[in-house]
Amino acid sequence: MAVDEELAFERLYGPWRALTPAELAELMDGMKAPWWLAGGHAIEAFTGVSRPHEDADMGFFGRDVPELRRHFDGRYHLWSVHGTTFRPLTDEQPEPLDLRSQIWIREHAQAPWLVDGLITPDVDGRWLSKRDPEHVADLDEVTWLDGDGVRYLDPEIVLLFKAAGDRRKDRRDLEVAWPLLDQEKQEWLARSLARLYPDHPWGEALRVGELVRWPERDEGRREDV
């Protein structure tokens, strides 16, 4: 996100403070439903290559919104975010605006946003990709645990999500993660990208198995990855 755009965003919606994975794990301690880190933090955890973060992207199942509300009840405010529409989750309006949207979390109106919660659909309790309706899997098949027990979305899946944005940071994440993916994961990402985004600028690079450094481009709007 460009500096001027970020300042305008903060003036309208308020600032963010990017939690570290350890801070998020502390905040989520006691949550009785699964959650996982996605986005840039997942790529950083996989590669060991650090970079700045605007926020903490946390995935969880849409069916677990009531448990999420219980976990934060009386301590933090949860807001349903769908496009440019914001609405607090309350006892009177407990349901998100859309079960494929986001829930933002902060302590109060004068405090920064802490968590960008990514509502994730499921099929009979199994994880369902919001990018690919054909991709249904057990949660353990699409996530991994680090040494501290923090769960992350698999890097090749994160990159497929990031392809839709194709921002500078997304291309950088691809560059650092691609060489570390095993052949099976590289082939999965290349096939999925070709099927879902056949004319995507990443496509040729992945097909030949050799990445290039693209020209820099302007950051897009805030995305959920």
Question: What does this molecule look like?
Answer:
- The relative contact order is 0.15.
- The protein is globular.
- It folds into 2 domains: 16-153, Beta Polymerase, domain 2 (2-Layer Sandwich), CATH 3.30.460; 155-219, no CATH class.
- The strands form 3 sheets. Strands 1-2-6-5-3-4 form a 6-stranded mixed beta sheet. Strands 7-8-9 form a 3-stranded antiparallel beta sheet.
- The chain contains 9 helices and 11 strands.
- A hairpin with a 2-residue loop joins strand 3 and strand 4 (85-88).
- With 225 residues, it is an alpha+beta fold.
- The chain is 35% helix and 20% strand.
Name some characteristics of this structure:
Beta Polymerase, domain 2; 2 domains; six-stranded mixed beta sheet; 11 strands
Low-confidence stretches: 213-224
CATH class label of the largest domain: Alpha Beta
SSE pattern: HHEHEHEEEEEEEHEEHHHH
Structural class, by secondary structure, is alpha+beta
Task: Report the CATH architecture of the largest domain.
Answer: 2-Layer Sandwich
For the biggest β-sheet, the strand order reads 1-2-6-5-3-4
Dominant shape? globular
Total individual domains: 2
What would the average pLDDT be, to the nearest integer?
90
Percentage of residues assigned to helices: 25-40%
Radius of gyration: 17 Å
CATH fold topology of the largest domain: Beta Polymerase, domain 2
- Main beta sheet strand tally, sense and closure: 6 strands, mixed
Strand content: 15-25%
Give the end-to-end Cα distance, rounded to a whole number of Å.
13 Å
Number of helices: 9
Number of strands: 11
